[in-house]
Amino acid sequence: MPNKRPSASRRAENARQKAERLRAEQRRRERNRRVMIASSVSTFVVGAVALAVAFWPSGSGSGSGTAKAASPPASATLAPAGQLTGAPVDGIQSGAMEQLAFHIHAHLQIYVNGQQKQLPYGIGIERPYQMTTDADGNPFAEGGKAIYWLHTHDQSGIIHMEAPIQVQFTLGEFFDMWGQPLTTSQVGPAHGQLTAFVNGKTVSGDPRAIALNAHDVIQLDVGSVVPFQSYTFPAGL
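Above: the chain sequence. Below: its structure as tokens.
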């Protein structure tokens, strides 16, 4: 008995079901594609966040932490180094080269209304400077016509104390070498209530009397108070 061909209505129903299956398959493939894209984006974002956390300076944000590795921009320098003549400043001598019999370092960081300000290079160095750059390409004053026992080479905040004999330097002497005032209501050109920290502890009284000892970390906050930021000295200092 010969096979009967499907009726027209049956053929139409088969065509409709086939079209529906094709549309369902297309929707499934589209969902899979979106899941793959979302997964890739999520992986990228997680990786980017992880890298940001890994390389974000530990001292950023509020609270105690290590000071930022990167210095503030050059435009944030509090005040330029003063002009020196080679004559003694507060009894501190200068010479043609550095004296290393006594050789220690301290660190000074200054915040004005919450914004960090740089120390300039060349404090305690008589112009013209002998300029070079450090490993990161930042300016570095190797020396000048004369260099004092108390000086800065760069804008990192590191204070160099290098003398032929052991000397007890003070923060007031450093500011005199800088050519800037220091009081309980003024730091350089910045005016406001001063809060001073030494190695994380608040100190009161005349800030000029603060002693500069080996690896002291001194923080001066003018106006608003920034939680103390610790500092890790580079190897060899």
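The two ends are 105 Å apart (CA to CA).
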